């Protein structure tokens, strides 16, 4: 099981291409299967906020979130919106989502599992970027969270749990924040800096560079959409695609929000949903933060990337097929202008770019990393939700370890796909 397997990796996003690099390192042959361009605008990796936040260990659902569901349904432009037309289809996922964060103990258990997955992620990404010849795209210079008051921070369960799992930070009062961020609106009076975290200066370019590194190292790329997995008993023999079969003796399902139908094809009906996300980017901005930051009131990340100032965040539950609601991107733009008053209100539309994509999310906020019930020749690696880019480095290592039959470097029981089956 440990040598010379031909591995078909379905999906050439961040998880897929890093899995390819690590599988090649283990001595396997690799074929990547994806209809799109690695790092292209169609990919969730492309639109990522760019944070390498090794402290993002808190799942989306927390105790009491069920009380907010009516508001989510009534406000199509809120931080989390649910389209009425999609509610019947999303309801089973939403119930699991609410139950996963029903108690503080459940959220704490998730935080410890995610900390194992994310710890040292900026360092892992830096090493990968150096291998791929783009070290400048990954920086480990900390990230800042800003709050309207100290009370907003003190009352946040997430920060209490981060402390429990070993995350450290530097606290800033209003004067210290002004010194660091003179252009930030004065309504923010408290901040924390997580120095272990980092950022990516262009997520799309980074994933594209990693894909090129994988190809230069011996991987092949098949431009096709995978439609299923072909088994002979409990042995995998091929990945089925729209253009024919790709023969292989192992496969990795890393197709993001499109993974659900692939797992169902081998009898694993997993509760994967898309949390539709948006970003807005201002090219050549006149003002902005000196460091990457998250605003607690806007629920969005603001990050400098090489193409401009990007603001990303919020969640919309509406499925894979519904048209984008571009008003959600306008909300992000308005929050950005509010955070940084020196940004002009009449920025030409030619300098404002918007994007919409699909975060692949499991209801408990924990990705699926592990073997299929149908065959140990099939490894699942999807459902990373809001932590796709940052978690991809260690996920790729874990995938390679599973393919080789080695002991995974972290406990994988919390990530097991069969927790839902």
Describe this structure in words.
The structure is a single chain. The protein folds into two domains: 6-46 and 205-272 and 364-420, FAD/NAD(P)-binding domain; 57-116 and 139-198 and 273-361, D-Amino Acid Oxidase, Chain A, domain 2 (2-Layer Sandwich), CATH 3.30.9. 31% of the residues lie in helices and 25% in strands. The protein contains 13 helices and 21 strands. The strands form four sheets. Strands 4, 6, 7, 8, 15, 16, 17, 18 and 19 form a nine-stranded mixed β-sheet that branches. It has a six-stranded mixed β-sheet with strand order 10-2-1-14-21-20, covered by helices on one side. Strands 3-9-5 form a three-stranded antiparallel β-sheet. A hairpin with a 2-residue loop joins strand 11 (226-232) and strand 12. The longest helix is centred in the C-terminal third of the chain and has 16 residues, at 388-403. It is globular and about 65 Å long. The mean pLDDT is 96. This is FAD-binding oxidoreductase. InterPro entries: FAD-dep_OxRdtase, FAD/NAD-bd_sf.
Give descriptors for this structure.
421 residues, alpha/beta, FAD/NAD(P)-binding domain, D-Amino Acid Oxidase, Chain A, domain 2, nine-stranded mixed beta sheet, six-stranded mixed beta sheet, 21 strands
Describe the SSE topology.
Elements lengths: L5 E5 L3 H12 L3 E5 L10 H4 L3 E2 L16 H6 L5 E3 L4 H14 L3 H15 L2 H11 L6 E2 L3 E5 L2 H5 L2 H8 L5 E3 L1 H7 L9 E5 L3 E3 L2 H14 L3 E3 L3 E7 L2 E7 L2 E4 L2 E4 L6 H5 L8 E10 L10 E3 L4 E6 L2 E10 L9 H13 L12 E10 L6 E4 L6 E5 L5 H16 L18
Parallel strand pairs: 1-2, 1-14, 2-10, 4-18, 6-16, 14-21
Antiparallel strand pairs: 3-9, 5-9, 6-8, 7-8, 11-12, 12-13, 15-18, 15-19, 16-17, 17-18, 20-21
Helix pairs in contact: 1-10, 1-13, 5-8, 6-13
Protein name: FAD-binding oxidoreductase
Keywords: Oxidoreductase
Pfam families: DAO
């Amino acid at each position: 099981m440990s040598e010379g397997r031909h591995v078909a990796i379905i999906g050439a996003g961040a998880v897929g291409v890093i899995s390819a690099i690590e599988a090649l390192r283990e001595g396997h042959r690799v074929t990547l299967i994806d209809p799109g361009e690695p790092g292209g605008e169609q990919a969730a990796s492309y639109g990522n906020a760019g944070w390498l936040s090794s402290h993002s260990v808190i799942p989306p659902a927390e105790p009491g979130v069920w009380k907010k569901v009516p508001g989510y349904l009534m406000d199509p432009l809120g931080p989390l919106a649910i389209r009425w037309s999609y509610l019947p289809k999303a309801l089973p996922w939403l119930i699991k989502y609410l139950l996963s964060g029903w108690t503080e103990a459940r959220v704490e258990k998730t935080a410890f599992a995610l900390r194992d997955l994310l710890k040292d992620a900026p360092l892992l990404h830096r090493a990968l970027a150096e291998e791929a010849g783009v070290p400048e795209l990954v920086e480990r210079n900390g990230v800042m969270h800003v709050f309207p008051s100290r009370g907003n921070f003190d009352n946040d369960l997430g920060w209490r749990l981060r402390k429990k799992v070993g995350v450290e930070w530097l606290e800033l009062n209003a004067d210290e924040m002004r010194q660091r961020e003179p252009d930030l609106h004065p309504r923010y009076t408290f901040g924390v800096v997580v120095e272990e975290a980092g950022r990516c200066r262009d997520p799309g370019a980074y994933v594209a560079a990693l894909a090129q590194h994988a190809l230069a190292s011996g991987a092949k790329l098949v431009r096709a959409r995978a439609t299923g997995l072909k088994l002979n008993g409990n042995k995998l023999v091929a990945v089925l695609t729209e253009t024919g079969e790709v023969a292989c003796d192992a496969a990795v399902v890393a197709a993001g929000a499109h993974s659900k139908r692939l797992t169902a094809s081998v009898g694993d009906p997993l509760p994967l949903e898309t949390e539709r996300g948006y970003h807005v980017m201002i090219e050549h901005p006149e003002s902005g933060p000196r460091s990457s930051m998250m605003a607690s009131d806007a629920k969005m990340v603001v990050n400098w990337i090489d193409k401009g100032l990007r603001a990303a965040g919020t969640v919309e539950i509406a499925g894979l097929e519904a048209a984008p609601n571009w008003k959600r991107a306008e909300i992000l733009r308005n929050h950005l202008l509010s955070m940084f008053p020196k940004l002009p209100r009449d920025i030409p539309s030619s300098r404002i770019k918007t994007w919409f994509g699909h975060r692949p999310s499991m209801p408990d906020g924990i990705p699926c990393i592990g073997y299929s019930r149908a065959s140990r020749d099939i490894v699942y690696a999807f459902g990373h939700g809001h932590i796709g880019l940052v978690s991809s480095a260690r996920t790729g290592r874990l995938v390679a370890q599973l393919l080789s039959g080695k002991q995974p470097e972290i406990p994988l029981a919390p990530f097991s796909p069969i927790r839902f089956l």
